[in-house]
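--- STAGE predict ---
source: upstream dedup step, 1 unique chain passed
mode: sequence only
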Amino acid sequence: MPQADNALVNESNRAMPERNARRARNRSRNGTLGRRQARVAYWFVLPQVIGLLAFTAVPLVVSLGYSFTRWDLIAPSPEFIGLENWRYLLQDDRVPTVLLNTAKFVLIGTSSFLLFSLVAALMTYVPRRGVGLYRAAIFLPYVLSQIAIGVIWRWMFNSQSGPITLGVELFGINSPDWLLDPATAMASIALVTTWQALGFGMTLFIASLQGVPATLTEAATVDGANWLQRFRHVTVPMISPTVFFLVVTSLIGALQLFDPVVAMTSSTSGPSTAGGPENSTRTLVLYLYNQMFNYNESLSGLGYAAALAWMLALLTFFITAVQFAVSRRWVHYTDAPAGRTGRGRRRP
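--- STAGE serialize ---
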């Protein structure tokens, strides 16, 4: 028996170098394959990186440089003027007005979009006969052009013969001049943008509502919770990531409002006449556009427009950063570790 054991040990020792060599060859082959796959992956990613650099990073840097120049696009080259555009921006008495108008639209448009999107989702998220037709009808405006929708709604809001005006007057109510009254113009535009984007928000809310576990709502029902309590304490926390996403994206979109204002308030002369009545709908992006092609002032044109664009970018970044910081208090992710909610925040 000892001789047999020694023979097995000797045979194992002789086979060990061969096994080690085989393992080394496999590791080398796997390493070569991994490097080859990595190179292929880099080639697939390269077009996206080039596009990001060419159409995002480089224009950002160039626009920042233009904000320190004066250029009306007619002169052969821009003139460096240092911080003059930024000083003029801080002293421009029209900037607070356009910021206030933008803030009004952000408040009205974002809140109404979230509210009506959630209501539409609650009415259509349960599968039933014909619900797909309602979803398609609500989603259809989202794929249409904002300019086309703005032109249609401008006719509907016509204070003389618009369908909305005539419909209101059927009830014996004096219809306001929807787009000609500073008190109602911005709210009318917010209504149109909400109607168009309603399908997008509804679709995301439907997906989120259908992902709420039935066991949670059933357990709350057994505990005696009514519909409102189940919605507040079960449904809302479960759909909070979707709410957060829609809040961030809708706020960014609202800060960039341009097309609906141009389509609904400008005359035949073009966007330069948009923003009425009495500048009540002139937003920051519209003012930026007008200054871009305004050659009647000493500081206007591309340089001042670039400074306004960077102010908008910094404002958007600040608001988004605040939203992410505050989201830790109310956004709940289902894949968070036990005992934690939001982005790693412990339950009290």
